[in-house]
Amino acid sequence: MQKIELMAPCGNWESMRAAVMAGADSVYFGVEQMNMRARATANFTVDDLKEIGEYCNSHNVRTYLTLNTIVYDHDLSIVKTLISAVKEHNITAVIAADQAVLNNARTAGVEVHISTQLNVTNLETVKFYALFADVMVLSRELSLTQVRKITDGISKEDVRGPSGNLIEIEIFGHGALCMAVSGKCYLSLHSNNSSANRGACVQNCRRTYTVIDNESGNELEIDNQYIMSPKDLCTIYFLDQVADSGVKVLKIEGRGRAPEYVKTTIETYREAIDALQNGTYSQEKVKGWMERLESVYNRGFWSGYYLGQKMGEWHDGSGSKATQKKVYIAKGAHYYPKPQIAEFLVEAQKIKKGDKILITGPTTGVIEMELDEIYVNGQPAEEAVKGDQLTFKCDRIRTTDKLYKMIPNPDV
Amino acid sequence: MIAVTLQRNKCIGCNYCFEIAPDMFRMSTKDGKSILVNGEDKRGFATVRVHDEYEDKANQCKEVCPVKIIKVHQCKVKK
Prior knowledge:
The structure holds two protein chains of two kinds. By secondary structure, chain A is an alpha/beta fold. Chain A has two domains: about 5-180 and about 230-300, Aldolase class I (TIM Barrel), CATH 3.20.20.70; about 325-410, Beta Barrel (Elongation Factor Tu (Ef-tu), domain 3). Chain A contains ten helices and 20 strands. In chain A, helix 1 packs parallel to helix 9. The longest helix of chain A is centred in the middle third of the chain and has 19 residues, at about 260-275. Chain A starts with a strand and ends with a strand. By secondary structure, chain B is α+β, with helices and mostly antiparallel strands. Chain B has one domain (about 1-75): Alpha-Beta Plaits, CATH 3.30.70.20. Chain B contains two helices and six strands. Chains A and B meet through helix 3 of A and loops of B.
């Protein structure tokens, strides 16, 4: 069985370190306003590219810069700046949608991957973009049979990219889906003047709506009012079929999601891909993996369009169906490297011995652990409350870190 | 007089403020973000004082900005 590359979403340093630690083969991320998550509060900047390149290259993780928004004339200069920065700092490739980006990157000799925004759905299109790109993500609306046809066609007709290698096909493996074809949506632009195609989607499709026929005044009877909010895509339970379809890269969605989401999802898919590789993939394992995936942010799961369902499956609530949620407790205060003791200042709720905790920070990434033994103000203790100095044995932490308690989600 | 403020690091370069008030905003050809013409920068917030007649235009820009980084307020009158 051929090896599948696992590609992780990174919206910030926390997620990037979590993804690398969790075993991602590659990471994708955006900088400044030129990416489809421009609205996110914590985006990378051009200056981060150097460190991203160094960090990921030292871990043998490939790096892809998303440069896939609509591009206006006033953006052409920043596009050039970003592409030369990609080249300078050894970022592996750019993910592009606009022809200006494709052309600029090719001219500069930077590897190009085709974004989902270009909605690739057939072999002829693959051949066309093969003039520019080596990797292409297929439209999320294709079935695995259609995917298979394209990957077969690539090897049969020997379709090669600028690198001289056969075109590699990538598909979305897990994460949010939206009601628009390949994310080309104007809803947010019409309602809030905030274009999804410039990375500023306000996600109004995730709200409840009623549908009324203005002519008769009749209200349409529908299952639930979340009529435009699909469930999240999950492919782990038919990953064997995904691999059989000849895809080389499995992309996980979620640059807007929390670092523990990235850690859990990547770890789980890492295990599943490795299991496929060594022949231990089984439905029993799938059960355990599903439980883990359900513990982090999700809108319920379905298989997307890959298995050829007629109708989409829609989310029936607002926000997440994760079985766990995090509660902020404390901030990092100090680390004693020799005895490996972490010190936190408790700023919010109380925390007890035995609690499951989560520590995140831009340098630390994500640490998940159970508190076996805690000390409060230097003394062994059962619980710590607001204002206490909490210490326990732990891997290295920093003062920029935050500590959360993981609790069962009462809404699920 | 009114004061117009732009927090440009959060700008996504959508171009709308420039469409409405090209004499107040322009798009940087360097980084693709909006620039407040004659704005005085203070910790990432550029501010300019303009005559009252620009108030409508400035408010339209404020309304239309998808990331809400334009603020308009009346200048305090010094007695």
